[in-house]
Amino acid sequence: MSQSLRELAKRRGLFFISQGSYGGSAGFYTFGPVGNEVKNNIVEEWRDVFVRGLGNMEIDAPTVMKEDVFQASGHVDTFDDMILECPNCGRSHRGDHLVEDETELEEAEGLPTEKIEELVEENDIGCPSCGEALAGVEVSEFNLMFDTDIGPGDSETGYLRPETAQGIFVDFPRLKQYARNQLPFGVAQVGRGYRNEISPRGGLSRVREFTMAELEQFILEGQKPELSEVEDVTLRILSREMQENGETPADMTPVEAVEDGVVESEWIAYFLGRAQTFYERIGIHPGRLRFRQHQADELSHYASDCWDAETDVGSEGRDWLEVTGFAFRGCYDLKKHHEHSESDYTVFREFDEPREVEEISVDPDMSWLGPELGDGAEKAVERLQELAESEPERFEKQSSVEIENGSGTMGIPVDKTGFSRETVEKNGEHVLPQVVEPSFGIGRLVYSVLTHSLDTDEVDGEERTLLRLPSEVAPADVAVLPLMDRDGLTDRAREVASTLRNKGLEVRFDSSGSIGRRYRRMDEIGVPLCVTVDYGTLGEEEETEKNTVTLRDRDTTEQERTDISELADRLA
Amino acid sequence: MSQSLRELAKRRGLFFISQGSYGGSAGFYTFGPVGNEVKNNIVEEWRDVFVRGLGNMEIDAPTVMKEDVFQASGHVDTFDDMILECPNCGRSHRGDHLVEDETELEEAEGLPTEKIEELVEENDIGCPSCGEALAGVEVSEFNLMFDTDIGPGDSETGYLRPETAQGIFVDFPRLKQYARNQLPFGVAQVGRGYRNEISPRGGLSRVREFTMAELEQFILEGQKPELSEVEDVTLRILSREMQENGETPADMTPVEAVEDGVVESEWIAYFLGRAQTFYERIGIHPGRLRFRQHQADELSHYASDCWDAETDVGSEGRDWLEVTGFAFRGCYDLKKHHEHSESDYTVFREFDEPREVEEISVDPDMSWLGPELGDGAEKAVERLQELAESEPERFEKQSSVEIENGSGTMGIPVDKTGFSRETVEKNGEHVLPQVVEPSFGIGRLVYSVLTHSLDTDEVDGEERTLLRLPSEVAPADVAVLPLMDRDGLTDRAREVASTLRNKGLEVRFDSSGSIGRRYRRMDEIGVPLCVTVDYGTLGEEEETEKNTVTLRDRDTTEQERTDISELADRLA
């Protein structure tokens, strides 16, 4: 993060490390009054595009969830980072970051722990805190979920969710009902996510608690999005192949990306297009934005393809920050919950016309199987069912079938298995939907927007700092300022502010300090317009018949007088 | 919760126990698509009244905070419930609830654990789960904060915040700067709070994770709110005295409540007034709302006075649910953080005019004290300072003062103490602000609003269920429905929906099923108006020149035709 943004953030209440009185809490930020408004505005714009704009549902699930859910989702087993503890000072470090910082390797996250140990040794990497040589130190896996105990005594383990997504997936059996089983449909969620980072970095780029906005788009294989809706959008694309060839990003539309085979999933291409529009609306600089495809070893355990939207948050286009992941999760998550729980995560897909389908089943004669097999009977039934599906011919060509039975094999007469193979007419089938997920990091977007908006220029011979925020995300639409705090100007200004508020505008009011200083303050927090109430407003200036105010533009600092009766309509 | 609300909640996606596929997670709810909209709307109304309406700031602090903070705030030591574990089945129960359920006692929360043990024994209370007699079982304190570990290895304990308030208090030294040290000012926060309830109850009334909206109003002693702003509001008041006398609530305005001495703090009276307006706007039934003062033994550890807004969520006015606490926290929290941390939580309060202030200080001669006392010198200096402030005359009337010194006392010559007493002129002083806190439980408000809105009537000889939600909190302003899904009606209806959306209206669209069934669906989720697009809209009916739609009112089911060109303006 740039020094100037860091200072501005503190001075003007954008964001700051939380609990500073107690030394701060690494990786935990508080959004101050101004930062919180920007953040809330970005969330509302997101809802406009991805919830209301696409006719999607939004839900609000808990942040603390049961262990069962994350066992099923794979997070308990695989949501890890590589950790390495310095034997001298006891500080913990991320193995992949150590290697990336100290070698030519740009991406070490996908490497196995043994490889990291090797690289640490080969490159004589030392502890960043105390300098101790780390060769020979074990690299292990550290689970990034915060855990806690739910309830007293007979408590069960719970986790702070690492993504809002699982709150949607796990209750899909209910959500599909609200969508009346009609796919495609999308379910969104905005809320907290948590990652117990080994070593949080400065600024909002790697934190332990963050706000996410996620959309889970449920589709059936073959269903297509309306790519024509995003045909006018241009994306800067950096595919896996382009990265391997050392190429620079190429500009193309979502349709071109699909037609040229650069983006495989039409749904991902569609969401890249929607996101591009969203980014521009909130003030991400198009020239400092790119869509980069994951390398195979970067992919999360649930994703078969993934694109990141990355913003340039450095000064030389070298520091790219992931602000959104567009993942093709397939039916990974729903399949896991379908298998791990008792509920049905499928939807019924009607065929275009009824189809002849072959049904194979067994219905064993338990009065024979029971006495014959005792406790093993139940397992034998399962094996018969499996065998019938995989090798039905064995039931048809022989008089008995052999199945494994603990120590050996045993033959079961086919006429005791109740084997049948028949052709039936079906109108459809139960299938697990696939999921395409755009997942936005709201804090990182705030950070990117502020970085891209922060500017300095010279006004009246003095350097001025300003945030060139679009009015959609600015902490207010307009500031109302009395020229001075006397002669009834303040009261008149309050009336003006109140009138504008009633028109639905977000209004700031400030009456303390010189008017120049107040302009600078509003520039620094990105308020696009200032309305100054002066003696002309009171109708006391003789040369004018009208009651006017000064309207000042943040970006140009140009001022013009406008009649107060026209003000509200003009701003609205 | 009523059976009909429970069923409606499931059927229409208001809310449901989360993670139902894994048996559900007690005390953790998911707001479905409709419930989430109602919830978000209530939050926005709250911001309208308590943030924007009062010119307050809003921040967003982490939900996981360091142990230091909750050590200081008193939550580690005192945020407990009484727990009692059944020796037979191992289930845990809340001691006070057991006693309340099984005896005449209405409020047992404030009793000591020994008293609960006595009452369990005297009343032969058995385990609610298995029936085992609980006499003789120990009642202990169970801390209600969820804990977790922050970071790996050298990790520190963190807690999920039990209230958003501490995130505001702990960073007050920074927040006062954003308010330029001008009090009064208010800081709001909307976000999650957590309580690891021993036995969560059904519905949204006692959950383990919830959304709160809190306002911390910082004031200096003597500063007054503008009570005139709430002079037209009527409150149903049930004071501590009225409860003791078995009286029913009395109607009065905030001004009357203060003048009659019923509500001591003018700030609390002011916020009761603001809240009353808010409750009415979101659809709380005024006749099912009251403000009840806490009994002395109900008060939280930080509060010196507290009023609860309670809503009647039962069927006979017997089941009152706390939806808001209005607590006078004094300077409790800021003082604790001021003492426990290194930061300054005071603000400078200017006197109306400069005052003569007596300053007493010591400045001991360490070259004498050091050799004389060795390691005890530092403590001796502290004691001298205390003594000088409490009994300055001892420094003035004697040539030596005696202080305690480990085992005995020792005399120190006054001329070695550097004692001075002087009168200086001061412009002001550093003081700790006081805090008045209205704290709203958003989930409980959603629950109350739904309970008060749920109604049944008879339409066309059939029973109809509807939510009589105010348009401010309804999940949509209007539903647009094609009469049938054919003859271009659906496309025309989509155009109408799109036009209305562009006017800023929240619009639902539904084209599946009979029109009657769709009306019922919209009634059940509380959409106030339906627009039906039919053949008249297409201009195909000969008897009319105009293109009209049907506008149907949820509450009356009355329908009228209105010209499509006037529709948007009429609804907006």
- Largest sheet, spatial ordering of strands of chain A: 3-10-11-21-16-15-14-12-13
Assigned CATH architecture of the largest domain in chain A: 2-Layer Sandwich
CATH topology of the largest domain in chain A: BirA Bifunctional Protein, domain 2
Helix content of chain A: 25-40%
Query: CATH superfamily name of the largest domain in chain A?
Result: Bira Bifunctional Protein, Domain 2
Q: Would you report the number of β strands of chain A?
A: 28
Question: Average pLDDT value of chain A?
Answer: 92
The rounded Rg of chain A comes to: 31 Å
* Largest inter-chain contact set: A-B, 80 and 80 residues
Structural class of chain A: alpha+beta
Main beta sheet of chain A, described? 9 strands, mixed
What is the subunit arrangement here? homodimer
Number of domains of chain A: 4
Distance between the termini of chain A: 35 Å
Please count the helical segments of chain A: 19
